[in-house]
Specification:
The protein has 91 residues and is mostly helical. It is built from 5 helices and no strands. Helix 2 packs antiparallel against helix 3 and helix 3 packs across helix 4.
């Protein structure tokens, strides 16, 4: 599917001065928002943006401050940290 955007010329010029490849910037913005809203999986994001590896997709997401870290993940990490600290205190 091809999507075409029509932008006023002055806005397009302003955006192109910030992002040399406006087409890619628009695609990346769409991919980021779709991933954040869970409309895309990590595998779909990788395919959409042409990344060969999951690590490339992860680096892209990190660069754009998009993290797959839930509250449950945080609580599990806290629990693990407490267990490790308790184990260190015993030795």
């Amino acid at each position: 599917m091809q999507i075409t955007l029509e932008l006023p010329e002055d806005i397009a010029q302003g955006l192109e001065s910030k992002w040399k490849d406006l087409h890619r910037a628009a695609l990346e913005s769409l991919a980021i928002e779709a991933y954040r809203s869970q409309a895309l999986t990590a595998a779909q994001l990788r395919r959409l943006l042409g990344f060969e590896t999951r690590m490339q997709a992860d680096a892209f997401l990190k660069e754009h401050e998009v993290y797959d870290f839930t509250g449950a993940d945080f609580e599990q990490d806290r629990k693990t940290l407490r267990q490790l600290r308790a184990g260190e205190a015993e030795h």
